[in-house]
Amino acid sequence: MVEVEIIHMGAPFRGLNLAEVVRIGNRAQKHFRFSLGDGIPNLGDPDDEGKYNVDELVPLLKARRVLSTSEVFVGIIDSPLQDELFSAVDSTNNHIVVSIDDIAGILTQSNQSYLSYVLVEIAAQLLTIEYRRTVGRSAPPTECEKPWHKPIRSCLFDYCDDRSQSRKKLIWGKLCDHCKASLSEANVRQTVIDACLDLVNKAVRTKLYAVLQAAVSNPFAQIVFSGSVISLLILGLVQSGFQTWEIITVSGLMVLTIVVIQYFRMKRPHS
What pTM did the predictor assign? Predict the structure, then answer.
């Protein structure tokens, strides 16, 4: 298995639990083994616009190599990167930097979470590393080098600084036919492709779970669900031969039971 160490870079941030990223990442596939490294709080000063250069962040990750057996290092930062990058791979194909700065709008539009976003970006860049290692190619973080492409195809490898367009790969989470062909022609290992796509699919499923969870907690949804259950119950009682007054009595007792249970729950002292 390829050891991948995830590191929090810079000031503390909210909305993202890297331990959960590690947990879900390991559950989603079996090719990579994710671990959580110690954070790097001191990143030095950004440029005049408050942005960081990826090439200046990578040496901080490289310094961890002598302290770890991991093969790939992923730094997560809540600050903007130069050239409007969302994430990048360095020219050694060993280090990934992912920025979660200014993505709240994308997450809202795609109904995604910070966790899902990070999983998708990590998956895309791990597949980038595999492709470039296979073909013997490297590129500076700011260059749109293969397998990335500038035409927007709702693909994992869309290279675009338009954040409204980037939400598409968070929704669909797929590779376009052009990229599938490129990976095949380069003889990229199918096990790695599958593992990276499993990470992406897990991110999409995580989004769906969050949507369902929110729906269940919605008061209107609860009313509709409760009404449906009661309707089915009444229909079943009618078909079983119960009289109208018997159905009303049973329904009343059920409502009364629920009210009493809720009353005692509210009366119970909180610890």
Answer: 0.76
Task: Give the pLDDT mean for 140-168.
Answer: 84
Query: Alpha carbon 95 to chain centroid distance?
Result: 19
Residue 66 sits at the vertex; the CA angle it makes with 65 and 70, to the nearest 5 degrees, is 40
Please, which residues have CB within 8 angstroms of residue 232's CB and are 6 or more apart in sequence?
none
Whether residues 70 and 185 fall in one domain: yes
Closest CA to 93 of 198, 203, 195, 2: 2
Shared domain for 193 and 231, answered yes or no, is no
Look up the domain containing 72 and give its range: 2-216
Measure Cα distances from 68 to 15, 63, 71, 264 in Å.
27, 10, 9, 54
pLDDT tens digits along 172-205 = 678 999 999 999 999 999 999 999 999 999 987 7
pLDDT of residue 217: 46
Report the relative pairing of strands 32-36 and 72-77 from DSSP bridges: unpaired
pLDDT at 172: 67
The DSSP H or E segment spanning 77 is: strand 72-77
Q: Are residues 239 and 116 in the same domain?
A: no
Same domain, 66 and 114: yes
Residues 85 and 46 in one domain: yes
Number of structural domains in the chain: 2
**Average pLDDT over the chain, rounded to an integer:** 84
Query: For residues 85 and 56, is the Cβ–Cβ distance under 8 A?
Result: no
Read off the pLDDT band of 214 (50, 70, 90): very low
**Helical segments of the chain, H only:** 18-28, 54-62, 104-110, 114-135, 163-172, 177-185, 190-217, 219-239, 244-267
212 in the same domain as 230: no
